[in-house]
Amino acid sequence: MLTLETLRGLLAETLGRPMPPLTPETRFEALPGWDSVVHLSVLLEAERAAGRALTARQMVEARTVGDLLGALGGEP
Q1: I need a labelling partner for 22 at 20 to 30 A (CA). Which of 4, 6, 52, 66 fits?
Q2: Residue 51: predicted pLDDT
Q3: Which contacts qualify for 4-10: CB closer than 8 Å, 24 or more apart?
Q4: What is the pLDDT of residue 76?
Q5: Low-confidence ranges of the chain (pLDDT < 70)
Q6: What is the pTM (predicted TM-score) of this model?
Q7: In this structure, is residue 29 part of a structural domain?
Q8: Does residue 37 sit within a domain?
Q9: Each residue of 18-27: pLDDT tens digit?
Q10: Vertex 38: Cα angle to 34 and 43 (nearest 5)
Q11: What domain range includes position 38?
């Protein structure tokens, strides 16, 4: 199951920098270094970690940490 801490680790690895504490309300676009390529990379890594696939709609609508966790059946 994908957790908030697992996602934080994925973000830190993808962005190549430590991540501040995350909440379900954290908007991806507010993270330093965020862009569309990072967004796609994080979505793909999160899918792999969760063992589930996102639909195209879920990918587009995943704007916050909570959105992504909810779409992948994770927990905050």
Answers
A1: 52
A2: 94
A3: 4/65, 4/69, 4/74, 4/75, 4/76, 6/49, 6/74, 7/46, 7/65, 7/68, 7/69, 7/74, 10/42, 10/45, 10/46, 10/49
A4: 67
A5: 76
A6: 0.91
A7: yes
A8: yes
A9: 998 999 999 9
A10: 120
A11: 4-71
